[in-house]
Each structure stands twice: as structure tokens, then as C-alpha cells.
Amino acid sequence: MPSIQRDKIRVMHVIPTLALGGTPRLMLDLTEHLHRSGSCEVQICVLGRSAQTCGKYHPVVEPVYLECPCRYRHMLEMLDVARRLRSHIRAEKPDIVHSYLWLADVITAAAIFKTDSRHISHIVDRRTGFASSRWKHRLKKNLVRYFLRRAGTKYISVSQACTDYACRYLGVPERIVSLAYNSIDPENYHFENRPFRAPVRIGAAGRMVEEKGQVYLLKAARLLKDQGVDYHLVIDGDGPLRQALEQRAKWLNISDHVDFCGFSSSMPEFYRHLDVFVVSSVDSEGLPTTLLEAMASGCAIVSTDVGGSCEVVRSGREGLLVAPRSPQAIADGIVTFMKDEPFRRNCVASARKRIIERFTMKQMVADVLTAYHLMPGMTS
After folding, report:
1. Nearest residue to 203 (alpha-carbon basis) of 129, 108, 276
2. Burial bucket for residue 49 (CB in 10 Å: 0-12, 13-18, 19+)
3. 345 near 351, Cβ under 8 Å?
4. Spatial contact of 145 and 177, defined as CB atoms under 8 Å apart
5. Pairing between β-strand 64-65 and β-strand 40-46 as defined by DSSP bridges
6. At the N or C end, where does the chain have fewer CB atoms within 10 A?
7. Quick one: DSSP state of residue 74?
8. Does domain 186-358 sit in CATH 3.40.47.10?
9. Rounded-to-integer distance, Cα 105 and Cα 118, Å
10. CATH topology agreement for domains 9-183+360-373 and 186-358
11. Are 278 and 251 in contact (CB under 8 A)?
């Protein structure tokens, strides 16, 4: 593989779809800031269909869509997508192909074989399938390992928790993983350290899927009602479990306290009207961007201790970490902030400071560029 020395690194970012979600947002924010840095020529390749793209997104460059279904039941379907991607890589000649999510990682690793491009995978979550002992999951894991090793793939991880997971279950050597925490631009989020209002406004945001644990938040809301707490819960997002969650709220007799608001047009405004932000995830999280945004916005934080949450929130300092799948722990955390105003004030101030010191886009871009320059054949 030839050495590369030029003023700008040519990087193609590959992702399955640009549907609304945390990983597409991460990719789009990162490509925008890499473009602004003047260090990279940015390209975006979407394996899926343009019709699936969220209208809220405004990519810094026009994406190229391969118009594939991205619902693969057979290896032959994945290899066909890899063939299409290989043709695109050979035409564009990127120095690095940077992929997101395991599906795109495997397809990119297959596509990049015997080209002059390098491959870097962005580890954004901790998919439970890789830890499973079921034969189908073992087969999938072995195929992922094979293609990534054959391509000489290197890695960027959004948290140490993701790094540890990939090392343990995919056999990835830690020496080829660079840490680049999920990050935000804190100046985009209004900060105000104010006492709780009545009713206390509790918020959550994310796709309505099992791994996000919204059902435990609803159960916690019922416990708060039983304690006579005056509150209003606002849940931002949508997903396959929305109807079931709305039915659960009715069954728990808390519908008058809960608002399923869909996707907010402005997340900074969403956080601005909250007192407490809750992350109720039960698994798979890498490092929730919503957690960082809420911390930058002056929300008191109650988060389950999963994935990389403990790497940004030190319990008792920037917020409270609680056990996953425990409605009582979530309710207790919220009540703790309500009863102890000095503690709440100190946590909120420390949370904003923590984001500014370690979880900014400027820092993430620097970490990603360092990872690029560590790739074989790359020169600074």
C-alpha cells in the first residue's frame, strides 16, 4: 500500500442510511467539522436509499446514494452491495474509508480489499448479538471478524466501554483502537442553572426501542405519582414501540402526566424547558449524545449506568447514575434532586464544565485526525 503525503486527507464516510438517529447525526456533525478544519476532503456515501433520508439533515457535501435496501438476509446480498461500493471507492480514490455501524463496517471491509484505500471503523454501540452464544450470532461474529481482519481495519471508538466490548467479543487488539468521545458544540445549548419549577419537568429523548428502556421510565413516573410528586414527563422521539408505550402510560394511569411529543424541531429548545433529563437505556449504548446535550443545557441528570455513561457522568458530581431496569432507582434519583437544591446546583454546574473541558467537537475532531494519521502509510 503506497504512502500518502498531501495537504488534505481524502476521506469517504460510509453509513447504511441517513434516517433520523444518533449515528447519522454523529457522522454529519463530524464531517462538517472535518470539512471546516481544512484538513480533509470529505465525501459521504450512503448504502441505503435517498428516500430514507431525514429532512432535518443538511450534509456539508452532497451524499452519494447506492440505493440498496440495507435489509440483508443472505451473504450474497451483502457481497453485491460491497461490489457496488468497491466500484465507487475505485472511482473516487479516497485515502481512508470511514464507516459507521457494523453493517457498513463489514460491507466496507469487503469492498476495500485489494484497493489502495485504508479502512477505519467507528465503533458507536455495544450490540448484544456479539456477546450471544447462539449459533447464528456466533456465525455473524466470525464473519465480521474475518472481513475486518482481512481488510486491516483500524478503529475509532466513542467510549472506553465500546473499546472494551469490541476487544472482548470481536477480538480487536486495543492497540489499533483510538478513543474519540462523542461530542457536541456546547455553545449551541442555552445554559441556565435554575431551581426546579412546579410541576417539575422531566424529559427523555431517543428512539422508542427496547434497548432505550422507556418502559422503566414510565414505571418510575407511576412511582412519582404515588408519592404525590407534581411533575410532567416529556418524551421526545418515535419508533416501533411508541404505540405500546402510549398504551403502557394509559395502563399505569399517568397519561395526564406524560407527553409523547414526537421528534422536536429544536433539541436546544427541548432541553431548555426541562428540569431533569433521564437516560433509561438498558443496553447497547456507546455514549448517548442526548446525555451530553442535556448536561450542556443545565438539566439535572439521572442516567442508567450502561455503556459510556459513567465516563462522562461521575455519580454524585455531574449527576446520578442508577441501575438499569430499575424504576425505583430512577424515581429516587429524581426525588433526590428535588429535595436537595445545593446538590442539584453543584451537579448542574459541574456537568456543564465537564462538557466544555472534555466533550467538545474541537476535541473530537483532533482525536479523529490523530487516528487518521496513525493509519498505515499516512504521513502528517
Report:
1. 276
2. middle
3. no
4. no
5. parallel
6. C
7. S
8. no
9. 12
10. yes
11. no
Q: Does domain 9-183+360-373 match CATH 3.40.50.2000?
A: yes
Residue 347 cell numbers, joined: 451537579
Contact 52, 18 (CB under 8 A): yes
- Per residue in 34-85, pLDDT tens? 999 999 999 999 999 998 888 888 999 999 999 987 666 677 788 899 999 9
Q: Inter-axis angle of helices 327-339 and 341-358, to 10 degrees?
A: 110
Q: Which residue has the cell 412546579?
A: 198
Nearby residues of 116 by Cβ (< 8 Å), 6 or more positions away: 1, 2, 93
The grid cell for 222 is: 407511576
Residue 172 is placed in which grid cell? Answer: 480487536
Q: 22-37 vs 361-373: helix axis angle to the nearest 10? A: 80
Q: Which one-letter DSSP state was computed for residue 63? A: P
Contacts of 246 (CB under 8 A, 6+ apart): 255, 260
Q: Which of 192, 202, 195, 194 is nearest to 225 (CA)?
A: 202
Rounded Cα distance, 180 and 335, in Å: 34
Domain coordinates of the chain in residue numbers? 9-183+360-373, 186-358
Residues paired with residue 119 on neighbouring β-strands, in sequence order: 97
Render pLDDT for 247-281 as a digit per residue (tens, 0 to 9): 999 999 999 999 999 988 899 999 999 999 999 99
> CA-based angle 205:208:213, to the nearest 5?
80
pTM of the model: 0.93
d(CA 316, CA 324): 17
Nearest 5°: CA angle at 229, between 225 and 233? 70
Decide: residue 334, CB within 10 A, 0-12 exposed, 13-18 middle, 19+ buried: buried
